[in-house]
Structure formats: C-alpha cells, structure tokens
Amino acid sequence: MYSNSRVVAVIGAAGSGKRMAASVPKQFIKQQGRTILETTVSKFTDCDFVDEVMAVVPPDYVDGCRKLLPGVRIIPGGEERQDSIFAAIRQLDREDPEGDTIVLIHDGVRPFVTQDTIRAVTEKAFEKGAAIAAVHTKDTIRHIDEGTLDRSKLYNVQTPQGFRLSLIREAYEKAFAEKYYGTDDAGLVERMGVVPEVVIGGEENIKITTPRDLRREMRVGTGYDVHRLDPGRKLVLGGVLIPWNKGLLGHSDADVLTHALMDAMLGAAALGDIGKWFPDSSPKYEGISSIILLKKVASLLNDEGYELVNADVTVICQEPKLAGYIQAMRENIAKATGVDMAVISVKATTTEKLGFTGRGEGIAAEAICLIREVPKGGNPGTEA
Ligand SMILES: Nc1ccn([C@@H]2O[C@H](COP(=O)(O)OP(=O)(O)OP(=O)(O)O)[C@@H](O)[C@H]2O)c(=O)n1
Ligand SMILES: C[C@](O)(CO)[C@H](O)COP(=O)(O)O
C-alpha cells in the first residue's frame, strides 16, 4: 500500500497520569475488563497497513507490558513525553538510517481513535511527510495578549501524528540540541519550517486526562424491608436510637431503614441481599448494629470495584415523627459508606393511618441508590 516504506506506530504510554490521580498510571486503568493501553494498541494492531507497533511505557512496567501486549515492541520511556517518543525514534533510526519509515506517534490514552483516522493520517504522511489528526475548535479561544482569536483558523490537535522518520528524527534532534520541549510532535517539525497536513479526526478521539474523561459504568439498585413493631424492643432507624414505646423486632437491631439501603446497594452490584451476607440463623448477627453491617456492605461493593454515588431512602412510618432525627441518620449512613452527607437522602412518610404501617403494627422502608465503577488497574507484571 505504501510502496517499500514500513509503517510503525509508536504509542507513548510512559506518563504517570498526575491529573488523573488514580492508583496506577491512567493507561493501566481497566475499562470493560482491559487496560486503556490494550485498547489503544489494538486499534493499531488491527490495521493491516501498520507493520509494527511499539509501546513506550514506564520502566517498571516493561516486563508486565511484554506479557500484556504480545507482539508489541516494549521500550522504557523517559521523564517527559518528548523523552519517551525520542527513545523510540532513536531505535527506529538505528534500524532504518535512510529514514523512509512512516512513524505514527499516538498517545496511549487515546483509545477511541478509529481505523479511518489512522489510515487518513498514514496516507497523508506518506504523501506529504507530515500529517496530524485534529478537530475544529468549538469554543471561542481568547489569547491573553491578542484577545479573541479567529476560530476558523484554530484546531484542537490530536494524535496520531504521522511523519517520515528522516523528518521527525531531525526535528527531535534539533529540539533536544536546543533544549526545546513542546507539547506535541508536530510542534517540533514546525520549528524546521515544515507545516504538517491536517486530517480532520473524530470528536470521539479524546485524550483521557482527568477522571471526568473515564467512561465509568453506573448501576442502580432498589431495596425494600418491613419489620414488626413490638413493645419490648428499642427503636433504631438509620443508626439513631429513637425514644418510643415500641421498637422493631428482628435478629439484628432490626434497623429497617438501613436494611433497605443495604439491599439497594447489594442489588446494584448484583451481590444478592442482606439475607445472603448476614443470615438470621447466625448468632454472630444477633442484636448487631445494622450500621456495622452497612459498613461491611460498602466494603463488599468496593471489593467488586464500585462506590456509592447517592442514595435516597423513604421510611414509611405512622408514628413516631422522625423529622428531628433525619440529620443524624444521614450522618451515620454517610460515615459508614464513606460518602459526603449531601448525597444521602432520608425521608419519612405516613400512610394516612392505612394498612399495617398506618395501624402502627410495623415500619417499612424503601431505598434506591446509584453506584459507579471505581477506576482500578495495576502493574500487569505484578498482578496475580
Ligand atoms: N514521560 C511521559 C509522559 C507522557 N507520556 C505519554 O504521553 C501521552 C499524553 O500525555 P499526558 O496525557 O500528559 O499523560 P501523563 O503525562 O501521564 O499525564 P499527566 O500530565 O496528568 O501526568 C500519554 O499517553 C502518556 O502516557 C509518555 O509516554 N511519557
Ligand atoms: C500530543 C497531544 O495529545 C496533542 O493534543 C497533547 O499535546 C499531549 O499533551 P499533554 O500535555 O502531554 O497532555
């Protein structure tokens, strides 16, 4: 397709992802079962016109990435993006001193790039020696000194950026000789008086930079519970002991509000219900505070890779009046689940003296909650 020139993709993936502030560099966060880097790399290995894919990764991820990405050449990166890409260019230069190779430089954290964009950049780079993917700027851009800029002349620059090896090598050598650090590869080529061709890429080709850029799975769950009122028991709702002449009957403290919430959370994660985790046949749970159980549910969710986003619980209770206790309930729930109190809602309603709750025979509660996937990943070399 491109005469005798090889096409090599260089995927820059040696950053630490400071702005993402996750427990691992963002390219190693798992989304839908695989790391962002695997998805990005697959976009290039799937192209029949790409002869080789190289990934530049943090030095301590080299071994793990060799296992994670079979068939991909893995090399250690440097301090800055420019150092990492230069490490790959130097290797390619040793293999092709003529510099005919077409080098496609791409960010390891742009997993949504399409094959059409990769193909278009490759073709233009082959034809003109330098081409970049970009999209038209949508916002108005104001320069601090020059005021509002003419938007029709502005692009948001993406990757891949494709270059003839001889050109990009010279551009990098010049930049390093002059101690110049830029924010992309095209910027270095432009310093040599070469203007790369712009290929209009796709709006979907974002660079995953901050948590907002992650597609995190969201799930909802509902819970419902009822307990009988009994004169010989204490009334505990949302972990608050409420002075009243009756309390709820049950194996634990029978905190019906917290039970409904736990079932909603477990349901959202498809982890069953509280009967499964805390059976009333076990003496371990006799008289236990349901707030302790709620803490356990929050940690079960976390082990599954989810966190609570918000919850809304309604207690259906004729008497006593609960308004004065609701703040304390929200505080208890927020503390046990590790979220801000602002995302926990507790409401109470009566049934106008109708039904078992209206007659004061029992209290019911229903809950709904939203949970979201927690960005997680690891060093593929050290994972079990
Ligand atoms: N020393 C570096 C720094 C960055 N990159 C790569 O360059 C791409 C774009 O960089 P950026 O989004 O800035 O990534 P990070 O440097 O990891 O992010 P941050 O600036 O938030 O730390 C990423 O795929 C990143 O892994 C690299 O290969 N080597
Ligand atoms: C190369 C790049 O992705 C083009 O948009 C961008 O410049 C990388 O910049 P960053 O500072 O490394 O995020």
Protein traits:
384 residues, alpha/beta, 60s Ribosomal Protein L30, Chain: A, 2 domains, seven-stranded mixed beta sheet, 11 helices, 19 strands, 29% helix, elongated, binds cytidine-5'-triphosphate, binds the ligand C[C@](O)(CO)[C@H](O)COP(=O)(O)O
Write the layout of secondary structure elements.
Layout: E1 7-12, E2 29-31, E3 34-35, H1 36-45, E4 52-57, H2 62-68, E5 73-76, H3 81-95, E6 102-107, H4 115-128, E7 130-136, E8 142-143, E9 147-148, E10 155-164, H5 165-177, H6 185-190, E11 197-200, E12 218-230, E13 235-237, E14 240-242, E15 247-248, H7 256-268, H8 274-277, H9 290-303, E16 306-316, H10 326-337, E17 344-349, H11 355-358, E18 362-373, E19 376-377
Parallel strand pairs: 1-4, 1-6, 4-5, 7-11, 16-17
Antiparallel strand pairs: 2-3, 2-19, 6-10, 7-10, 8-9, 12-15, 12-18, 13-14, 16-18
Helix pairs in contact: 3-5, 7-9, 9-10
Bound molecules: cytidine-5'-triphosphate and the ligand C[C@](O)(CO)[C@H](O)COP(=O)(O)O.
Site (Positions MEP for the nucleophilic attack): 151, 207
Family: Belongs to the IspD/TarI cytidylyltransferase family. IspD subfamily.
Binding site for a divalent metal cation: 225, 227, 259
